[in-house]
Amino acid sequence: MGFARDIQLVVPIFWLGMVIAISFVEAPLEFRAPGVTLAIGLGIGRKVFAALNIVEVVLAVVLSVAWLYADTDGWLLLVLVSTILVVQVAVVRPPLTKRSNRVLAGENVPCSKIHFVYIALEVVKVLLLIALTIDLVGQI
Questions:
Q1: Dmax over Cα atoms in the chain, in whole Å?
Q2: For residue 1, what pLDDT is reported?
Q3: How far apart are alpha carbons 64 and 8 in whole angstroms?
Q4: Axis crossing angle, helix 93-104 with helix 38-69, rounded to the nearest 10
Q5: I need a surface site. Which of 7, 11, 70, 105 has the fewest CB within 10 A?
Q6: pLDDT for position 48
Q7: Cβ atoms < 10 Å from Cβ of 90
Q8: pLDDT at position 58, please?
Q9: Among 120, 121, 132, 140, which Cα is nearest to 11's?
Q10: Rounded distance, CA 77 to CA 132, Å?
Q11: In a 10 Å sphere around its CB, with 0-12 CB exposed, 13-18 middle and 19+ buried, how is residue 12 labelled?
Q12: Is 126 within 8 Å of 16 (Cβ atoms)?
């Protein structure tokens, strides 16, 4: 097993852990912390998710490069996970950012279904990362 193969095994698990920790633990809890207003929570969330998405893009690139050097199957799962990430960053996040800008400007805006789309994509991404990890471990 070479270095590229090691990268293939470690990166999806690391990526999975980050998504679970931030999207499903930190994000819901930040709004429940004492003294955290909606504006503060949105400000924190925007910074945290921007950083998460940058790290995710780097991990997807690293994983893709590792795939070029390792003799493994399962690239379709990587393409699907990467596609979901692109949709989240390029399609879903811009309307969420516009909405949070309006909230931060003091507007009273109705609930947005686009937030639930982002959450659904996160769930699918987690499931795909689990499937990718299982697939790669099964190839050992």
A1: 56
A2: 58
A3: 9
A4: 160
A5: 105
A6: 95
A7: 9
A8: 97
A9: 132
A10: 6
A11: buried
A12: yes
Q: Which residues of 110-133 are buried (b: 16+ CB within 10 A; e: fewer)?
A: eeeebeebbeebbeebbebbeebb
Q: Record the pTM.
A: 0.91
Residue at token pair 């709004």: 31
Rounded CA gap, 91 and 80, in Å?
16
The amino acid at 65: V
pLDDT 10s per residue in the chain (140 long)?
588 888 999 999 999 999 999 999 999 898 888 999 888 898 899 999 999 999 999 999 999 999 888 877 778 999 999 999 999 999 999 999 999 999 889 888 888 899 999 999 999 999 999 999 999 888 87
Contact (CB, 8 A) for 96 and 112: yes
- How many CA atoms lie within 13 Å of 55's alpha carbon, on the beta-carbon side? 15
Residues 6+ apart with CB under 8 A from 98: none
Give the length of the chain. 140
